[in-house]
Amino acid sequence: MSIGKSCEVLFSPAEFMALQKRDLSRAVCVVFDILRATTSMTVALDNGAAAVLPANDIPDALALRARFPDALLAGERHGLRIGADLTGGVEFDLGNSPREFTREKVAGRTLIMTTTNGTRALQACAGAKRVFVGSFPNLAATARAVLAEKPGQLFLVCAGTYEEAAYEDTLAAGAMADLVWDFFDESAVADSVAIARNLWLGAKADLVGAIRHSRNGRRLLTHPDLKDDVAICFQRDTATIVATMVDGAVRVPSPG
To answer: pTM score > 0.90 for this model?
Structure first.
């Protein structure tokens, strides 16, 4: 049973920024920034955060904080929590480690988050019919939500690293592609989807080994304060929430 008309994987910022010039009114986008933005958003919402407001850059985040003074500031540059030296005096409350977004810290709170690539990717998809935040922890739940939408177009959007593709995001896009593969006619599936899916099929039996192929994974694993994030980011289906961006805010939709 095929329900989708086209499916693509976008590997890098150059590709996802071009989405802004396309008609996305019938499109569903799933954004992956596995290490670590979309994983951290998933963990935060699973732990009861009210919403995550993605900001393109630090000035945008500070402007949002002025509008929502009770919100928590979260984000990173070069992997580390944003400090006063980058903001002109404001220390961010949280970084971009999923371990930071505990229920005690985030339950009921709105978060304003800016990261190097993940929040940019979400903003690039803002014109889509539906935008989901994808991660390994909520992969199956997100796949079910995608199929329920019966999308005319499905874009699996990899946030990438700097301006390049990222191994871990492509791996996650391939895992999602595998879950929805049977619902698209072969003629509607771009080669980019087959590339990502084949990468996943070849790596899924040894994700620990796969991490060693990821530049971001190697970087985090060698950082004493960040290395424990990696295992969390590769845990599969530990959350049942579907994180959806509507009107610029990422939330868990209310039932019904």
So the answer is: yes
